[in-house]
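user: can you give me the structure for this one chain? tokens are fine.
assistant: on it. calling the predictor now.
[tool input]
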Amino acid sequence: MEDSAPHEAPGPTLDQKVGAAVKHHRALAGLTLAELSARAQVSTAMISKIERGQVSASLTTLQALSGGIGVPLINFFAGTVERSDVSFVRAGEGITVQRLGSDFGHSYKMIGRAEASHVGFECFDVTLEQPLAARPVYLHRGIEFIHLTEGEMVYHCGDASYHMRPGDSLSFDSNSAHGPQELLTDRVRFITVVAKAEPKDPGL
């Protein structure tokens, strides 16, 4: 008598994959269920069921959730196809993005981005030019790496300030207040990488 082939455990359903993506992006944004509910005008009970893969959410509901989190709707379906999260950007290319610092004379160009299980990062090519109209201070979840490629500046991080020249690097917990304190040249350019880990148990 021949042994029967072992049965493979079924993989996650489409609803479970979409739900996991919603939960993942909510966690990355640092939003609780209640906060997302208020933003998206979707009940916390419904969001919880969606994240657990217990219901098939309509596109209208998913659109509301994506708007509340601040991510494209397509992000919720990224896990439904086999892929490897890879980004390749040629020299001089990238995506110009609008961030808080853009109001303070910062030019941000996204040159890299990737996500994997429980972790993600974004990489920016940042240009600062005189006059620095204000001294923006940033505070966000994650860790950050800065590598200065052009010019000189004084960069504030936590309780200390650092005189940075081309080739200098700075790594820090971005929960500490940080930001450019003074530009010592007309133009400053640096590469920054911001990494965030997904909490294992996002707040409800």
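assistant: here you go. The longest strand covers residues 106-116. Residues 98-104, 200-204 have pLDDT under 50 and may be disordered.
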